[in-house]
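User: Predict the full complex structure for these chains.
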Amino acid sequence: MTKASGIVALLTDYGLQDPYVGVMKGALLSVNPEARIVDLTHEIPPQDILEGARVLAAARGYFPDGTVFVAVVDPGVGSERGIVGVETDRQIFLAPDNGLLGFLGDSIERIVRIGESESVLKPLSRTFHGRDIFAPIAGRLSRGADLGQFGAPLQQLCTLEVSPPRRRSDGSVQGEVVAIDRFGNLITNIPAGMLPDGPGLRITLGRKVLRQLSRSYADAPKGALLALVGSTGHLEISVNQGSASKAVRSRRGDRVLVTRSRR
Amino acid sequence: MTKASGIVALLTDYGLQDPYVGVMKGALLSVNPEARIVDLTHEIPPQDILEGARVLAAARGYFPDGTVFVAVVDPGVGSERGIVGVETDRQIFLAPDNGLLGFLGDSIERIVRIGESESVLKPLSRTFHGRDIFAPIAGRLSRGADLGQFGAPLQQLCTLEVSPPRRRSDGSVQGEVVAIDRFGNLITNIPAGMLPDGPGLRITLGRKVLRQLSRSYADAPKGALLALVGSTGHLEISVNQGSASKAVRSRRGDRVLVTRSRR
Amino acid sequence: MTKASGIVALLTDYGLQDPYVGVMKGALLSVNPEARIVDLTHEIPPQDILEGARVLAAARGYFPDGTVFVAVVDPGVGSERGIVGVETDRQIFLAPDNGLLGFLGDSIERIVRIGESESVLKPLSRTFHGRDIFAPIAGRLSRGADLGQFGAPLQQLCTLEVSPPRRRSDGSVQGEVVAIDRFGNLITNIPAGMLPDGPGLRITLGRKVLRQLSRSYADAPKGALLALVGSTGHLEISVNQGSASKAVRSRRGDRVLVTRSRR
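Assistant: Here is the predicted structure of the three-chain assembly.
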């Protein structure tokens, strides 16, 4: 059993314009006033489960052992979709069972389908389970409650349909832009391990072709387009001290092709 | 006397682009380094006292007993407007006396007009009382200081001019859109209790007419406009997995009419 | 030696749309789970070192003794630019050595160039030192580690090229708009101490001329343009209950001239 540390990390698509995140924190603190709440992010695009799953999987390793993650990207709120709690060897996760925990991989040690509980807020709304279910149960988990007391074991999580990067028969790799960050960096789903070794690398995005991997932004001249392995270990297209997103007018979903020239 | 828990919840119209919220927290922590500060929201539209009052009243019940709320939407900063502290049976509130605490209802047990105090920062600015007055006094309150030591009792708070939803002679109810959230939900000021019971319900917003209340977003087909009782207990117009705001092009202040068809 | 209080204040240009700030906090809490992290701001414009330096210098005095500030505006991340730790009599600062700490003035008591350290995360990325270097070292500093153990003393910080406000031979003062806040206030770099005393003041911004200093926003009629000394002690152009930025269509960098009329 993973021991809760009192740290609770929140990932939602609630944004910060509205009071939803604040109210959710209030509900959590009402159960555990000593919880130390950290915002992982609240800016997952509305109802974008896939992006939420990607961010959570990339971030969780940097949080302490015993962190309780509460992930709420929940287009099916109020429907019959389930809510699940998951334990890995290090941490605890609470989320709708809609694929949001789909990238935790084989570190999962226990899955529980959250059932009826006297911990939830009454009257239970049909639109704001972040406040009424997730927050109070996370509060109890962060105080050390055993996940098992909130429901019965479940064999398998709901999975996501994803199109991972593909290695084609000619050895090239095709992936896509999965996120564009504030700096205009184009983050792809191609992990460093799939990049061809050695000289002759060719990275194509729309009409742009890059012929080498830089090691850092500063490796390229100011304003120049470059490719590197970013901080999540994936191929990234960037501009040194500028915005690749502006330079290339790329969007999420744009295809990225990595080949090695014949010699 | 309400016992402070050390939790301080902030509601302001400062936004997060500027360092104002951060500086206010620094000033608060300078007085009480152990304060556990929670952001309720900082995105109240600039100087929109009414919206601040609405959000605070809807949110406060979800926070723990002993929370000190600091609410700063303060177009009259530096003028002769007063600053007030309020105690309910459960919590403590600090705000300009401009109506921001106008919806706390009859749970108020004590009102104090904050007077001269050696707690405030010197030199006192005329434009940033969040930092110079609210933060240090909230810091002291969160450490358990009695509200009474910051000023003299006051009989009544400044009130807001509001146009609550009206029940007309024909039994219909007229309200308005008071907020539009990140998901495009149109939140009205019509509480569930004012909605007519039984069949024949008719909800009109502009040219759109809805003929039933859904229980959750997922009750309606994907993309369909629907009406339901939202998480604050008020009528809400939504689109399942979409944005009612985009679908209807509605704005805050738009009229919403709820009638029951004759039979 | 400045004693750390466990409070860590973050200033970055990361924004809140992406998970970078959340991940950085996770990495910090992994080293010091008891750290009390405060967001000073994450909305420094991307790679705007000067603005970061200005905000940090104006804000730090409001934070408690023993605060560890982590400032990351770092266009040179992954290059040979250094990382520095600085102690003043009251607080500790960690930042890239690119001018970001350039306005701390003569309160600096010690400078250390951060060297190789077993505290940094491995594998060390070349693009996200906030997570891999700044967070873990800040975590150790916030637990009381001595700055000296992270590197060798350094004589001088990298400085910024700035154009401070100038007093001209005719006694007038020329400065510029350095920030525009959420309320549309135009914040200049002209400190109160450089403003001419007495009657006949004349403040020129584009085609607008203001002939007096107000003491507060409410001093002027609603909607009127006014000038006052703002909360950081600098000349500010504002509109009472409105936006000077909209009224004047000003931008950062616009020239502001303060003269005194001849009598």
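Chain C touches chain A at residues 14-23, 25-27, 29-30, 33, 37, 46-47, 75-79, 81, 121, 125-128, 131-132 (CB under 8 Å).
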